[in-house]
Design a protein that fits this description.
Muramoyl-pentapeptide Carboxypeptidase, domain 2; 6 helices; alpha+beta; four-stranded antiparallel β-sheet
Length: 149
Amino acid sequence: MNSYPDYDDKTLSQLRMHECQGTIIGGMKVAQLTGMSAEEYGYQMMKLQQVDWSRAKSAAKIAQVFWQHFQTTYGFGSKLEVREDNNTVILTMPPLEQSAEYQLNHWSATAKELQDIQRGYWRAITELCGLRSKLNFYPDQHQVILYRD
């Protein structure tokens, strides 16, 4: 007899989302114990993956990958908007820390550290892809802007 709950798909999705956040934030806290900054952790995390980001060739393809990442990790649903204009792609979403509040508290991490992880991700991706990125962390929304010079 199984005494564990039989979760529905929505609950399982929420559990996965929290685990993804916990892995990212917890990994950052461990990296900090070795003297690594949150930004450097994000940078190394993205660089060490065996993903050839240069094959994406376009801001739109990279935005599609990160649309999936943001949906899986933060569960924004329709609140994650993607706009394309020529060679520029803008991802606009609620602040990451709103979705990750539980894990930030659990790991005694700050919103700034979570934002620094993002800075590291995008620094690595722009180096690997030949794209440029700009991150905007406003109180009511975050933006990732990808473009070619």
